[in-house]
Write a structure and sequence with these properties.
The complex is a heterodimer of chains A (about 130) and B (about 210). Chain A is mainly alpha-helical and about 130 residues long. Chain A has 4 helices and no strands. Chain B has 5 helices and 8 strands. Classes of the chains: A mainly alpha (about 130), B alpha+beta (about 210). At the A-B interface, helix 1, helix 2 and helix 3 of A face helix 1 of B.
């Protein structure tokens, strides 16, 4: 039940974005996509940290913002330099998103099994800490 | 503990939502942009558009043909009304106005009705559009004869006595009509002069010949 408020926030954000409908120039679409990827990774990292009970709100918020901006900036610089840095960003963030999702899934399954059977399942393997 | 993680997470989720929807819109606009389409899609689009263009060009052709057909109709009706005008002229249904000649035969000569019919036929042959004798229209079924009324001899045109001077009006090319009558060896020179008929021929700028009765 406590997840309802953040999910409402997500819905509100999407609604807000579609109402405001920022006209991002097509040239910047690529960098925006990297920023979205970075933000998604950071948010999932935050969810994971909640699962791991090591959550810190300041770190999450600053992490989302700075990750998104830095990722976009890095991709832009890469374009200026003629290096496809955005490929690296996509790769790194993609891998991290899947890792975070896997950890979240493990924790959820563990919690479910604990509550339904009372048996403590195998504790999820601790994937190396790379949260913001 | 619960409250502390919910608020920052909600904020980040809002940010993520804004970013996501913005990115979706941008991507939609990108997808609509021609330069981002792949080649096979563009090929299909070009094919469809050129087919549409061809069909439109065909439609233009058809419409132009229809327009031409209509203008042909107009031409046809113009032709028909010209024909009607021509036949009205021949039948003497309408009054005619135009340049022509006036042939005047005075009383001091003795023309026969042959002379009248010869003169009229000569005028027809010279391209007269309409002829009247003493303001009576000469048509395809006019006839000439003579009659004696109260000791006097008269030429008759369509049962109407012709009083002197007999005036023959003819509308057409005035110079041609004039020459047709007065040329050396022409009708006046060779035929009418035998009977001492010496008609005066005057070219007129504007003659009015009434319709046949």
């Amino acid at each position: 039940m406590m997840w309802i408020v953040p999910l409402l926030g997500l819905a509100a954000g999407i609604l807000l974005g579609s109402i405001l409908s920022f006209q991002v120039p097509v040239v910047f679409a690529k960098y925006l996509s990297i920023a979205v990827l970075a933000a998604l990774d950071s948010v999932l990292g935050g969810v994971r940290s909640i699962m791991e009970k090591s959550f810190n709100g300041i770190i999450l918020i600053t992490g989302v913002v700075s990750n998104a901006l830095l990722a976009a900036l890095l991709a832009y610089i890469g374009d200026r330099l003629g290096v496809d840095l955005y490929m690296a960003a996509i790769f790194v963030f993609g891998v991290r998103i899947f890792q975070n999702l896997a950890v979240i899934r493990h924790y959820l399954i563990a919690r479910f099994m604990r509550s339904s059977t009372g048996v403590d399942p195998i504790k999820p393997k601790h994937i190396e800490e790379n949260n913001p | 503990m619960k409250k502390t993680w919910q608020i920052p997470l909600t904020i980040t989720f809002i940010l993520l939502g804004i970013l996501l929807s913005t990115q979706l819109q941008t991507q939609n606009r990108l997808a609509a942009d021609l330069s981002q389409q792949n080649i096979s899609d563009l090929t299909i689009m070009v094919k469809n558009l050129s087919e549409k263009r061809q069909s439109l060009a065909q439609e233009i052709d058809e419409l132009e043909t229809a327009i031409n057909a209509h203008s042909d109709d107009a031409e046809l009706s113009a032709q028909l009304s010209a024909d009607i005008e021509k036949y009205n002229l021949v039948l003497g249904k309408t009054a005619v106005q135009g340049p022509g000649i006036t042939v005047t035969i005075t009383k001091d000569s003795w023309p026969t009705f042959f002379d009248l019919s010869r003169t009229v036929n000569e005028l027809w042959a010279a391209g007269a559009e309409a002829i009247a004798i003493n303001n009576q229209r000469v048509t395809f079924d006019s006839n000439f004869s003579y009659a004696e009324v109260a000791q006097g001899q008269y030429l008759v045109h369509n049962k109407q006595l012709l009083k002197y001077p007999i005036v023959i009006d003819a509308i057409g090319n005035a110079a041609t009509l004039d020459t047709a009558l007065t040329m050396p060896g022409g009708i006046i020179d060779t035929q009418l002069s035998i009977m001492g008929v010496a008609p005066t021929v005057v070219q007129m700028e504007n003659l009015i010949i009434p319709a046949a009765e």
